Amino acid sequence: MDWTETTRRSFLKQMGAAGAMALAAGSAEAMGRQSDQTQGGAQETPGEIAADQKQAATRDQRMKWWHEAKFGMFVHWGLYSVIGQHEWAKEEEGIPIPQYEILAKNFKPKPNAARDWARLAKAAGQRYMVMTTKHHEGFCNFDTKLTNYNAVQQGPGRDLVREYVEAARAEGLHVGFYYSLMDWHHPDGAKCKTDEAARRRFVDYTHGLIRELMTNYGKIDVLWYDVDWPLTPEGWESEKMNQMVFELQPEIIVNNRNGLQGDFSTPEQHIQASEVGRAWETCMTLNDSWGFNRYDDAWKTPKTIVDNLATVARGGGNYLLNIGPEPDGSVPPASVEILEKVGAWLAVNGDSFYGTERGKLSTTANANFTRRGNTLYVHQHFWPGHTPAAEWLSFYQPESVIAIGGLKPKVLSAKLLKTGEAVKFTQDEFAFRLTGLPIDPPDSPVSVIEVECDSEPVVDHEAMRSLWPRYKVGISI
Ligand code: GLC
After folding, report:
1. What is the pTM of this model?
2. Domains and their CATH numbers in the chain
3. Which of 45, 226, 379, 438 has minimal Cβ neighbours within 10 Å of its Cβ?
């Protein structure tokens, strides 16, 4: 869920006066700063500066696998799944803590449900996973000495995070932990904003839980913090938090939602590339909810997901796509169906996605583009199909033609990625045209044509405008 004004307002209403005062004070940090956080801590000590520099120095190396992986599975699973009405049910439905705690006793998932998630992720072409270890509700899906509000001591009777870690590793996937700093269950979770003793207790608790997560499960590849309400990075002692994490897991990568820059930005529910040189990952739901939501039927189509993959790749980013398993751990059938279709497409067209690089490629209404080196991938999501001209004019062949205006470099060759079949083309100063293509789209949901160029492909319709005779005066129209 995005932190829209409506969400913030209803959240505040339910958090009561303390939260309202925080927002009135205009503190951005009062409400989950979630998208593209860039703010760093105010006064860094020399030790902290050294730690930052060390993280920056090792960043490329630590992130190499992640840039290559490009596509991950997010998993939101917890007590909210038992309700089945979105992971914000506790707040949005005003459920009192004693009532909510009853869910913990009744959360009884089937053993090793995570194996199915990991198999599905693999089949979908996803190469890493990130699971909620503790969401805003405060329930720990893992074994901890710091609270009995955890999966081992409550309904499940076992460590769900351990099952997940083992399942992901068994499929050769990298392992990530989501962790919400905001906590609606802990008695100090809101009080810490205004009461120093409460802050001390809550920050110790938070660092303690993260320490357990970073210690008890072997090598962890990603730590995905979420919502840092109600404290500032100084209040959370986020610098110290990251230092501890890197001491325990020197090769890990961390996101930017504990108020620090971390290793990557986290645009949520939209695709937005960061500035060149800054890593980013769009996280997105398959319907409109992160947690299981029984009647949320706003499913994205496989075509939308495949197109999103191309858009993300074009901007040099990653895509973390969510499933919200049911209370017993089963994946909703609609999610399985979408992900399997995406996986089948990637199995054939993976070259146009994995290992691609950020590009200067403006899209058309009918096609998206990715590129690797001098290779352009044309992702034709709306195939041109039959042209009536083929019937009216005897010299027209029944064929599909894909035309791209403003493709800069010289094209050397082209082929259909699915079959390897060569595609004929023409090229002049205005447009590049792939010709002789079949009337029906050769692949579904998107057909990809691989185009070899003599230098880095750039698609720039605007630059082309100045070439038109009627625009010779310039590019302004
Ligand atoms: C927001 C939501 C949360 C979800 C997260 C995923 O912070 O509050 O429910 O887990 O986004 O990015």
Report:
1. 0.90
2. 5-349 (3.20.20.80), 360-465 (2.60.40.1180)
3. 45
